[in-house]
Amino acid sequence: MKQNSRLWLALHTLGHIANEPDRMHTSAEIADHAGTNPVVVRRVLGRLREAGLLVSEKGHAGGWRLASAPKDITLADIYSALDENIVAPPPADYARSCAVESELHKHVTSVLLEAERSLVERLGETTLAQFQEV
Amino acid sequence: MKQNSRLWLALHTLGHIANEPDRMHTSAEIADHAGTNPVVVRRVLGRLREAGLLVSEKGHAGGWRLASAPKDITLADIYSALDENIVAPPPADYARSCAVESELHKHVTSVLLEAERSLVERLGETTLAQFQEV
DNA sequence: AGGTCTGTAACTTTTGATGTTGCGAAACAT
DNA sequence: ATGTTTCGCAACATCAAAAGTTACAGACCT
Ligand code: FES
Ligand code: FES
Fold it and tell me: Which of A24-28, A102-106, A128-132, B66-70 has the lowest mean pLDDT?
């Protein structure tokens, strides 16, 4: 795998699950498929479970399945569940000479946030249903 | 500074330069302003120069200035010059069981690319002129 | 009871970004 | 010419986040 591949892993995995919504998928199976490790898979899918997109069950017939119909899960849901914060990294510990109260500073920040908002909006137009039966 | 702050540094810096387009800005000055190091600044601005957005000059009155009018430089230009590749990380070394030729796989990839394309399109609607005189 | 799973915590490894130092090349001032 | 300023670049050192790993407890089914 690689860095910042959480979104990638989540999308491909949910794509597969959406194509077989009726059975449970184990983290071992998914990990093998994605060329990674079960624990890593659980870490990522765990976030999606917290967001209510997935359900997991323990024990013999355990594993993961979608919490709702593919058509009711958008890519924006997935993106948000991972809180990637991709386009607008936090301000860090910048500038002394350019205060946070600066108009320019606030303006730049708001433009970045707006761009990300628009990205999420775009992702909201695609659902997992579009990954079925392809 | 922090990780993945190239875009952040570029936007804020160009914002400042756009507000004083007529004088040269040195990397030392910019670095001080952004709370980082001159070499780091040159690394980032260097990419923008390669993309034709900035011009740099050596020597006494040297430094950096815009290569064209603020209204002719969009945020998409800046984003692209840094080739961030933010939303769609390269496929890495995934799956043996899920071939690259898989329809599902291609579909997921194309959706990611489309999302990024739409992000860039959105960034293209804002120019540096909007950072002037704020 | 025994076998599968997930859930987590701890730790190590890897990777990319950033920070740092040093020096050469160009431009300019004196 | 000489010295100063500033970029350009290469070669490191440092840092932080992500990913990989190991280990074990808890839940569930047969
Ligand atoms: S650092 Fe000056 S505008 Fe953000
Ligand atoms: S891993 Fe990409 S669709 Fe199977």
Answer: A102-106
Distance of alpha carbon A35 from alpha carbon B88, whole angstroms = 18
Ligand 2 centroid from CA A118, angstroms: 26
pLDDT digits (tens, 9 = 90+) for A18-55: 999 999 999 999 999 998 999 999 999 999 999 999 99
Q: How many CB atoms lie within 10 A of CB A15?
A: 22
Contact A14, A76 (CB under 8 A): no
Task: Write out pLDDT tens, residues B37-54.
Answer: 999 999 999 999 999 999
Query: Hey, whose CA ends up nearest to atom 2 of ligand 2?
Result: B105
Structure-token match 């708001």, residue found: A110
Which residues face A11 on adjacent strands? none
- State how far the Cα of B72 lies from the Cα of B58, in Å rounded to an integer: 25
Length of chain B: 134
Contact A105 B131 (CB under 8 A): no
Instruction: Please give the Cα distance from A16 to A29 (Å, whole number).
Output: 11
Q: Which two tokens stand for residue B122?
A: 């959105």
Contact indicator for A15, A128 with CB cutoff of 8 Å: yes
Specify the pTM: 0.92
SS3 content of chain B, % helix, strand, coil (to 5): 50, 10, 40
pLDDT at B91: 57
* Domains of chain A with bracketed CATH: 5-131 (1.10.10.10)
Contact B15 A123 (CB under 8 A): no
Checking if the pLDDT of B2 tops 60, the result is no
Residue A83 CA, distance from chain mean position: 7
